[in-house]
Amino acid sequence: MPIKTLLITPPFTQLNTTYPASPYLKGFLKQHGYEVFQADLSIEVMNAIFSQNGFAALFEQFPANHVQLSQNSRHILSNAEYYLQSVDLVMNFLKHRDTTLATRICSDNFLPMASRFDQLPDLQWSFGSVGVYDRARFLATLYIEDIGDLIKDGITPYFGFSRYAEKLGISAHSFAPINEALQQPSNIIETWMLELLKKHIEEQRPDVVGLTIPFPGNLYAALKCGQFIRQNYPQIKVIAGGGYVNTELREFSEPAVFEYLDFITLDDGERPLLNILEFLEGKRDVKELTRTFITTGNDVRYVNSEKEGFVSQNEIGCPDYSDLALGNYISLIDLANPMHRLWNDGRWNKLTIAHGCYWHKCSFCDTSLEYINRFDSTAAGVLADRIEGVITQTGQTGFHFVDEAAPPAALKALALELLRRKISISWWANIRFENAFTENLSRLLAESGCIAVTGGLETAADRLLKLMNKGVTVGQAARVCRNFNRAGIMVHAYLMYGFPTQTAQETVDSLEIVRQLFDQELIQSAFWHRFTATIHSEVGQNPEKYKCRIIDPPKGRFAKNDLQHEDPTGCDHQAFTQGLNKAVYNFMHGIGTDYSVADWFAFKVPRVAVKNNHIKRAIK
């Protein structure tokens, strides 16, 4: 009999939709005749917590006097009865099962309220007189976040709604702190996770368990699952891979990791996973594994047979969403912004148009890694087939294309194919602000169902964009945003500050550019990222070219990615963090675009050098 595989997404990822790794891999392995079951422990644990039984068990964890807890936590516990009465109703509402509850949630006497409700925006202004449903979801989101604060305060500081024990996974050069944490008794959250894992193992009786580790906030939970399997089901082989592994563990040599895992794979998981299953079936030798770490006693060995290459995008198959309880995901609204809400609102089906980035030249990006530099596009017909297949499986017509940068030509071909087949969907994707996105192409994309795009404007300063080899100018990006805007497509801009040599003047001017983009309604949302050098980027590998110095290069046998750097010719980047974030937060609420840039900072900043009509002139 073929090997049976159980694919697991460990806590925590998005609450509104499935992380795509397990559906992608299940669809691929089924093509090769394997029996595969998948489970999303992330949403399953969240549903265990946010239930009447879950709340009752949580509240029992706290001593009667609560003296060590914050005032906010004590307030929540004093209202435990109201939380127990309301939690199942709120969760059903957030799952779209009981929309009639919206009006009661919006009243002042239904939800128990703690500190998250202390600074409510003007709900009438944010949602209007008829936006009762969205207003209710916003309030229900605050209710959920209040309990999250209680868990962090009194159960475990590891808790987060899209991450768990993230600090243990970030820049973890040594495995020792993680290993030590894994030896501690399980808290109630971890106990629920392991009980759910046990249930799936007992029901499916797999030979192999595959764990995806996309982010630092999944590492600890994945290893906790591996530990449980090793202790209770030693006959099961455990495989791990995913985005965190691909970026952080390419050079790891710590054998202690294999106390929890049997195989660790790099880059796209299709070929390595298929080869491991064939190895376990006796169909191939260990030396024929692909991009896989194994242990040989006290040593770590990397095996990468060049016998077979990567599986092409046209051959990976249609994602398979079977087994997943799609009705258990919850839609949250943490910001009254129509673009920003897409990340947390709605159960988006995820697909990839093209693997990698067709540009792959930005010096801040991990361009030396396969997930960026190996470009492989999917044929429009194949992609449309997958879209139809996923709609049939899920009943959902919303799609998020999770490309590093979706190519304009591929998007055009897909749009034409969707229109030809009369496939009606809503979709959004990440793009580069290329001149190829003309007004005509933007209108075509909108006609095919495009509702939004996200793209990197980074420092919004032409000197720095040229230095980082972005291949985009501010004026070019503004014109592309105008084209999308005229087509009715929303735009989110990824912003960056702290790039080597960036001055205070450039930082202030970049905020002025962003202010003008919001003021002209060319972008609807944005987010500032602080620049970090990585060992896989051009900056990390050639810091002298960017007039910066790498200090304390990572030593250790586990994770290696982020680098500490000094920027002797740049400004004090950290000083600008609060002001930049505060400004964009207000811009996303439609507030403050008439303020002077200097108003957002608590210290004196250079006078803006950019003309106040710079963007308006650029888009004429």
Helix and strand layout, with pairings?
Blueprint: E1 4-9, H1 21-31, E2 35-40, H2 41-49, H3 52-59, H4 71-78, H5 80-94, H6 102-106, H7 123-127, H8 132-154, H9 166-169, H10 176-182, H11 188-204, E3 208-212, H12 216-232, E4 237-241, H13 243-248, E5 263-265, H14 270-280, E6 292-296, E7 299-303, E8 349-351, E9 354-355, H15 370-373, E10 376-377, H16 380-394, E11 398-401, H17 408-421, E12 426-431, H18 439-447, E13 450-458, H19 462-467, H20 474-486, E14 490-497, H21 504-519, E15 525-530, E16 533-534, H22 538-541, E17 549-551, E18 562-566, H23 577-588, H24 614-618
Parallel strand pairs: 1-2, 1-3, 3-4, 4-5, 8-11, 11-12, 12-13, 13-14, 14-15
Antiparallel strand pairs: 5-6, 6-7, 9-10, 16-18, 17-18
Task: Provide a descriptive summary of the structure in words.
The chain is of the alpha/beta class and 620 residues long. The chain is built from 24 helices and 18 strands. The protein has a seven-stranded mixed β-sheet, with helices on both faces. The chain has a six-stranded parallel β-sheet with strand order 8-11-12-13-14-15. The chain has a three-stranded antiparallel β-sheet with strand order 16-18-17. Strand 4 (237-241), helix 13 and strand 5 form a beta-alpha-beta unit. The termini are far apart.
